[in-house]
Design brief:
The protein is of the alpha+beta class. Helices cover 41% and strands 19% of the residues. It has helices at 2-17, 22-34, 41-44, 54-63, 68-77, 153-171, and strands at 86-95, 106-109, 119-131, 140-146.
């Protein structure tokens, strides 16, 4: 029964969320999920589950398209209706220390980065996730977004929580 749910979930993602280069995108995601440690992007194409030419990985990233609105709504639909539902909201920075000309870079505090200083140059992201069980580390992301240069993490988090409230209300058939 659970295997059928997984198959349906994957088929829905494939059919509705991915448009261009969907096979290559799907294999890339599988390669990411099935490998504990990937040191470089080209290494993904060497994963046993990745059956395409290495160049298809680059084509998937360059040409692939995803329907983010559909994906977010679909992930939110996966959260069961419970008496108490816990969602976690956090922000992090994806460090790009050598990418001086990359658009949208900001200096951000990063307590988990391994360099001597805790201020790094990179792109900040905000993540909203459903936490199904207290005391467990697993969570289902429902809304991840890069924090725009004109926003801070609090403003982005507020937007995500407002989106979540509207999404949950629409799933329940309520007007917001």
């Amino acid at each position: 029964m659970e295997l059928n749910k997984l198959i349906e979930f994957r088929q829905d993602i494939y059919n509705n969320a991915l448009s261009k280069a969907r096979d290559a995108q799907f294999e890339l995601v599988d390669a990411l999920l099935s490998n504990c440690r990937i040191n470089s992007f080209p290494e993904l194409s060497l994963a046993p589950i990745h059956q395409r030419q290495w160049s298809s990985s680059y084509a998937a990233v360059e040409n692939g398209q995803q329907d983010e609105t559909w994906l977010r709504a679909y992930f939110c639909e996966q959260v069961p209706e419970l008496d108490v539902t816990v969602f976690a909201l956090d922000s992090t920075v994806w460090c790009h220390p050598r990418a001086r000309t990359l658009e949208g870079l900001r200096y951000e505090y990063s307590p988990t980065h391994s360099i001597k200083t805790s201020i790094v140059q990179g792109h900040p992201y905000s993540m909203l996730a459903w936490v199904p069980e207290a005391g467990r580390s697993w969570a289902l992301p429902v809304h991840n977004a890069r924090i725009a240069t004109h926003l801070d993490s609090i403003e982005m988090g507020v937007q995500q929580v407002q989106w979540l409230c509207a999404q949950r209300a629409s799933c329940a058939g309520l007007d917001v």
